[in-house]
Design a protein that fits this description.
Blueprint (H helix, E strand, L loop, with lengths): L7 E4 L3 H13 L5 E4 L2 H10 L6 E5 L7 H10 L5 E5 L4 H13 L3 E6 L5 H16 L10 H9 L3 E10 L4 E11 L14 H6 L3 H23 L4 E5 L2 H5 L3 H11 L7 E6 L7 H12 L3 E7 L6 H6 L4 E4 L1 H4 L6 H16 L3 E4 L5 H8 L6 E2 L10 H20 L1
Parallel strand pairs: 1-2, 1-3, 3-4, 4-5, 7-8, 8-9, 9-10, 10-11, 11-12, 12-13
Antiparallel strand pairs: 6-7, 6-13
Helix pairs in contact: 2-3, 3-4, 4-14
Bound molecules: ligand C2E and calcium ion (CA) (2 copies).
The site of one calcium ion has 4 residues, from strand 10.
Length: 404
């Protein structure tokens, strides 16, 4: 999918809105746009080519079939594209619309308000691309034999990215992100190029074990440098959750290395996880044993508020698509505020992922609510020694800032 070739529908009963939106989208490089003047019309067009359309702008208030009903039908038909609501909306309506979308497994990525402004529209398209990044890996994947070689040569290595406490200026936790060391070949290999392959060829457990074995050693040293209350977070793939032997295996591993469950957070993505009884059993067991469980990439999948209450999460990580430009994005602001309320009520940790700008950071800090912050602005993923150096600088800077 090229950046500009997004097959788009505008469903709005107002012709003038359709024309304005069409013109602005053209200016942003989008040319394939179909106009529909009702929800029913849009549904007919989409049904004729279910996989063709990637982005639908929906007016909530239309005669015959309104936007909410359209979203519901799209969900029932398994629509794979994204939806943007056109209208200035009060908080309750946004919450309701996003809940309906989640219940029906539709990707609602935001809203744009009238009069439509091109910067806002540009931002919406950026979010569209973030969402779709989760579904594709642009670079070529490693082959099975390349991956096996890397494992045999002990080239599976941990990088670490901190989660810092927004109110206390403390590093609360570090997340382990896997890389393959690639000496002589430039930079390390990112997980998007080998996690799928590892899952397909039954190598994912081996990778996790090699990664954790190295991380555990680093972790003891990092606790000495950064504070003994530091926790270690790592990612598990949904396949690993499917395996009922996983909890025991992990638990024995950590016991053997003298690590308590309370020191560990297991991150699972919302998209594929949490569907099968096995996955739920695994998650529950780990949680009962005292491990932290984080719902990763919240917002890219379809966990709704009711499920959030029922699932055993100790942490919710808000996906980067809701954090980018949050200081200007009314929709994301409302979603984040709702999550703040939920996290307080159910006593779960809230993490904002992918903070890249100071404005995003300030917005979140000024919510004056306990939240963990993670992103390139604070620190990119780093190897252990570099992380320790980063920490001492960061600590000096944040102490100086706190005194002012
Ligand atoms: P994730 O768990 O959501 O991790 C966050 C990803 O976003 C990381 O990419 C991180 O480098 C990147 N990131 C962090 N802050 C920012 C930011 O401010 N801006 C932007 N643009 N990106 C940011 P990475 O390391 O390439 O990992 C990608 C995904 O691969 C992870 O997403 C996770 O789902 C998966 N993964 C990583 N390590 C493991 C692992 O050990 N096991 C499994 N099963 N999956 C892993
Ligand atoms: Ca993660
Ligand atoms: Ca994430």
């Amino acid at each position: 999918m090229s950046k500009h070739n997004i097959n788009t529908i505008i469903a709005d009963d107002s012709k003038s809105i359709r024309i304005v939106l069409d013109t602005l989208l053209n200016q942003l490089g989008i040319e394939d746009i179909t106009h529909c003047n009702s929800g029913r019309d849009a549904l007919t067009v989409i049904n004729a080519q279910p996989l063709y359309y990637q982005l639908v702008f929906v007016d909530l208030n239309m005669p015959e079939m309104d936007g909410m009903e359209l979203i519901r039908h799209l969900g029932n038909q398994g629509f794979k594209g994204s939806v943007v609501i056109i209208s200035g909306m009060e908080e309750r309506v946004i919450n309701l619309a996003s809940e309906v979308a989640r219940q029906h497994k539709v990707h609602l990525i935001g809203n744009i308000i009238k009069p439509i402004n091109i910067d806002e529209l540009q931002h919406t398209l950026t979010k569209f691309h973030y969402f779709n990044e989760h579904l594709s890996s642009p670079q070529a994947s490693l082959s099975k034999s390349e991956l096996e070689l890397a494992i045999n040569e002990q080239r599976i290595i941990p990088y670490y990215q901190p989660k810092v406490d927004s109110q206390k200026n403390q590093v609360h936790s570090i997340e382990v992100l896997v890389r393959i060391d690639n000496p002589g070949q430039g930079s390390n290999i990112l997980p998007s190029r080998f996690i799928n392959c590892a899952e397909d060829h039954d190598l994912i457990d081996t990778i996790t074990v090699q990664l954790l074995t190295k991380s555990i050693k680093d972790f003891k040293e990092l606790q000495q440098e950064l504070g003994s209350s530091l926790t270690l977070a790592f990612n598990l793939s949904p396949l690993q959750l499917e395996d009922l032997a996983t909890p025991k295996r992990l638990d024995s591993f950590f016991k053997q290395h003298d690590i308590r469950p309370e020191e560990i957070v297991i991150e699972v993505t919302e998209e594929l996880a949490l569907q099968t009884p096995n996955q739920l059993e695994t998650l529950n067991r780990l949680r009962i044993w005292g491990y932290g469980i984080a719902l990763d990439d919240f917002g890219t999948g379809f966990t709704n508020v009711t499920q959030l209450k029922q699932l055993p999460f100790s942490e919710i990580k808000i996906d980067r698509s809701f954090i980018t430009n949050i200081q200007h994005d009314h929709f994301s602001q409302i979603i984040v505020k709702t999550l703040v309320d939920i996290s307080k009520k159910y006593n779960v940790e809230l993490v904002a992922e992918g903070i890249e700008s100071y404005e995003e950071y300030l917005y979140l800090k000024n919510l004056n609510t306990p939240m963990l912050l993670q992103g390139y602005l604070i620190s990119k993923p780093k190897q252990k020694n570099e992380l320790i150096r980063w920490y001492h600088n960061w600590k000096k800077m944040s102490e100086a800032a706190a005194e002012n």
